[in-house]
Amino acid sequence: MPSLIELSAIRAAATRISRDIIRTASILSPGLSAMIKRPVYLKLENTQIGGSFKARGVLNKFAGVADELSSGRFVAVSGGNFGIALAQAAAKLHAMVTIIMPQTAPAASMRKIRALGASVIVTDDVKDAFAHAERLAQAGDKILDDCADTAIAEGHGTLALEFIEDCPALTDVFVAVGGGAMLAGVGAALKNIKPEIRIWGVESAGANSMERALCAGRPVEIDVTSIISTLGVPLVSDIMFHHAKAYVEGIVVVSDDDAIRGMISFGENAGQWVELATGSLIAAVHKIAHHLPSDAVVGLVVCGGNISHQDRQKWSANQPRGRGAAQA
């Protein structure tokens, strides 16, 4: 079994990146608390540099390869936020980065990455994106893989240090999964600080590679069909699988439609502009609310806010009305 991330490594990452990231706010949401009928606190990583938590892991990773940045070539696969964080850090540190994105990734994210000076290659789907990255790696590029890199997960875990310090009463924390690095870092931090806390991973149907892995007892490849590009990983890594197995209470799988309703609910009930991955959290809490004790204190990691007005309107217009877990 791979070694699990140590709390000391996350604390070291927090010190390492402290000057370059925002210590984002943790706030009580009266509107969502009324919906869930329990106190709900939000960790506002949508206000982080680059609009998501990804800057934490990227900056921690780049600190560890600082001597390679000026001469090396790097490549990464991204559904949006990882690419934005990499492009911003690369621009600051004068590194050469190529971001490979499936065509389902938000066009606004592609434009932002290109504007920051990074190269963008668009592929038909996420499997093709990973295959293209492998080809570039064979030609000499170094792959930056946030689905399998503990240095990145340690950086992501720094948000949990802040969250539990600001909200020590938390009993249940919901985290969108994607490749699992944030889940691993957050789980390692919170369970080492407060062992009785419950960590819930959240995936969308068609991007539920971690749920499938935990059911099978090993990582298994899936066909990604979810519209939520930031959660679309066809195969979780062995290291992130073992962290989920060690720390997660359960994986909650919600529909794309419920994630859309959750995104809208975040705006209407919490005053937050968020992505679909964050919207999925509200649907997940509703889905298992009956399992939570009446005195539970819920924490939601608001993982990102990189969504265009055009995409928000498109998804809002197409989602079914009058049903679903994310309704108030």
Cα end-to-end separation: 43 Å
CATH class of the largest domain: Alpha Beta
Number of continuous helical runs: 13
Number of strands: 10
Tell me the major beta sheet. Answer: 6 strands, mixed
* Overall form: globular
- Bin the strand percentage: 15-25%
Quickly give the CATH architecture of the largest domain.
Answer: 3-Layer(aba) Sandwich
**Low-confidence parts, pLDDT < 50 over ≥5 residues?**
321-328
Order of helices and strands: HEHEHEHEHEHEHEHEHHEHHEH
> What structural class results from the helix and strand content?
alpha/beta
Instruction: Specify the helix fraction band.
Output: 40-55%
Q: What's the mean pLDDT score?
A: 92
Whole-number total of structural domains: 2
> Measured on Cα atoms, how large is the radius of gyration?
18 Å
Q: How are the strands of the largest sheet arranged?
A: 1-2-10-7-8-9
- According to CATH, the fold-level topology of the largest domain is Rossmann fold
Description:
Keywords: Lyase, Pyridoxal phosphate. InterPro entries: Ser/Thr_Dehydratase, Ser/Thr_deHydtase_PyrdxlP-BS, TrpB-like_PALP, TrpB-like_PALP_sf. This is Serine/threonine dehydratase family protein. Its cofactor is pyridoxal 5'-phosphate. Residues 18-304 form the Tryptophan synthase beta chain-like PALP domain. With 328 residues, the protein is an alpha/beta fold. It folds into two domains: 7-53 and 149-317, Rossmann fold (3-Layer(aba) Sandwich), CATH 3.40.50; 55-143, Rossmann fold (3-Layer(aba) Sandwich). It has 13 helices and ten strands. It has helices at residues 7-17, 30-36, 54-64, 81-93, 107-115, 126-138, 150-166, 181-193, 209-216, 238-247, 256-270, 276-288, 309-318; strands spanning 26-28, 40-44, 73-77, 96-102, 119-123, 142-143, 172-176, 198-204, 248-254, 298-302. The protein has a six-stranded mixed β-sheet with strand order 1-2-10-7-8-9, sandwiched between helices. A four-stranded parallel β-sheet has the order 5-4-3-6, with helices on both faces. α4 links the parallel β3 and β4 (96-102). α11 crosses α12. It starts with 6 loop residues before the first helix and ends in a 10-residue tail after the last helix. Residues 321-328 have low confidence and may be disordered.
